[in-house]
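ARCHIVE CARD
Drawer: 12
Card no.: 0347
Subject: one protein chain, sequence and derived structure
Cross-reference: see card 0346
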Amino acid sequence: MKLFFTWWNKQTVGTFLKTFFTGTLVGKDDFGNKYYKNKKNERWVIYSQEVEATKISSEWYLWIHHTTDRLPEKSEKKFNWQKKHLENQTGTKNKHNPTKITKNSIRKKYETWK
């Protein structure tokens, strides 16, 4: 029932119908997202959970934006300096939290007017 009334739960009704009638599954990523295309070479993703664009890894991002036609392979060798893809962590306990700047740690380089 959620599918009919909310778009943020994986897909809309229109996307569901488009996928059902014209979509061809081309692959799945580590997050469980499914990638589709049709005969017109339109490409789209059905998210496994919440709709969040940062859940698309860089390899699939290149494919879905027509930068490359080559499908990503899981067996593709990566460099040891490459990190595993993470979705945007803003608003979670894993968010980037730089060292706190306190009022006492800021040194003024000027004098205020009196």
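Annotation on reverse: The mean pLDDT is 82. Residues 2-105 form one domain.
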